[in-house]
Amino acid sequence: MAYCLWVELMNRYQTIPKHLRYTITDFNRQFPDDAACLEHLKEQRFPGGIAHCEKCNQDRKHYRINGRPVYSCDHCGTQISPMAGTIFEHSSTSLRLWYYAMYLMASTRCGISAKQIQRETGVTYKTAWRMFRQIRSLLSETDMQLEGSAVEIDETYVGGKRKNKHGSRGMRGRDNDEKTPVFGMVERGGKGRVLAYVTPDAKAATLFPIIEEKILPNSIVYSDEYSTYDRLATPANGYDHRRIKHAQKIYVMGDVHTQTIEGFWSLIKRGIGGVYHSVSRKYLQTYLDEYSFRYNRRDQGNLIFNAFLKRVVERADLPPVAASRGMTPLVQEPF
Questions:
Q1: Percentage of residues in the chain having pLDDT higher than 70
Q2: pLDDT tens digit string along 167-195?
């Protein structure tokens, strides 16, 4: 009786709306084995099994060959693989484990470590780490343009070690050469999307080309009082620049604040510190891409997994003949 009451209370206070939930039970039902995953991938890339046959030089129906992860042309027997050109190609890891890794990455706000995948699935740490690196390679959004009329910008510093721990708090941020500069921008209202970049430094010459490329002219830009942003107030730049003075312990003044982007920095730092413990400068951008990808789809609930699966197909390399014909992968909703 007590257990039933507990379950009822938990269900009553679900934070994700019912139509946006996709549980591990749903995952196991839809993808029980490698065959189901391969069929799903085939339908995403070649709906109905119709694909261009290089030998016939026309679109043909393809059928699965038993015992092999390939499909054969019904006319000439030429074989194609749905995994060709994707991150799954040449991988000896079970396709279902790839799908499961993407499900776990999509279902958490703070990420999941390769060590956790190793413990849950039995693959080696090297394999788990490589899988996550390949999945993260799909998540960059370099072509995205911020469309909001108001944008918050800020810089932060990730990684490194604090010096003089047993004395003062040591050097922080831009005073510590061991930390990696990261610059971020987030839309106010609307879609509320974010972009984050690893940068060599936080100087105006480095940040302003990013600002001018990603933020529309005439936008309201909110920042702190860091001197790098002084140029934003110049009329020639075409921005309405509004600043909050953190040095004076002022963090919100009406609608002037940078709380949104700072909340995103907190999410990243807590995730890296709590899940990954440390991330090298070399791979930090891929982790920023992962956090940004999930953040930009936070209104999709557990169906962010859907977006991960789409990226596999969208970033797949087409066969040479198909590419020359201007074909693009057709993406279908898996849910």
A1: 86
A2: 444 455 565 678 999 999 999 977 899 99
Res 5: pLDDT? 44
Contacts for 107 with CB less than 8 Å, ≥ 6 apart: 22, 302, 304, 305
Beta-carbon contacts of residue 114 (< 8 Å; ≥ 6 apart): 125, 128, 129, 131, 132
Say which amino acid occupies 107: S
The residue ranges of every structural domain in the chain are 20-140+304-324, 150-295
Per-residue pLDDT of 24-82, as tens digits, reads: 999 999 999 999 999 999 999 999 999 989 898 989 999 999 989 999 998 888 899 99
The answer, yes or no, to whether residue 126 has pLDDT greater than 50, is yes
Amino acid of residue 262: E
Strands lying side by side in the sheet with 194-198: 194-198, 180-187, 150-158, 220-223, 240-243
328 pLDDT above the threshold of 90 = no
Sorted by sequence, the CB contacts under 8 Å of residue 35 that are 6+ apart come out as none
Residue keyed to tokens 């099994």: 49
Mean pLDDT on 207-225: 93
Environment class of residue 328 by beta-carbon count within 10 Å: exposed (0-12), middle (13-18) or buried (19+)? exposed
The Cβ of residue 69 has, within 10 Å, a number of other Cβ atoms equal to 17
Distances (CA, A) of 261 to 192, 203, 220, 237: 10, 19, 15, 22
- The hierarchical CATH code for the domain 150-295 is 3.30.420.10
C-alpha distances out from residue 152 to 205, 220, 236, 259, Å = 19, 8, 20, 8
What angle, rounded to 10 degrees, do the helices at 125-136 and 95-106 form?
60
Residue 215 phi, psi (nearest 5): -110, 130
Distance CA 2, CA 97 (A): 36
Rounded CA gap, 226 and 203, in Å? 10
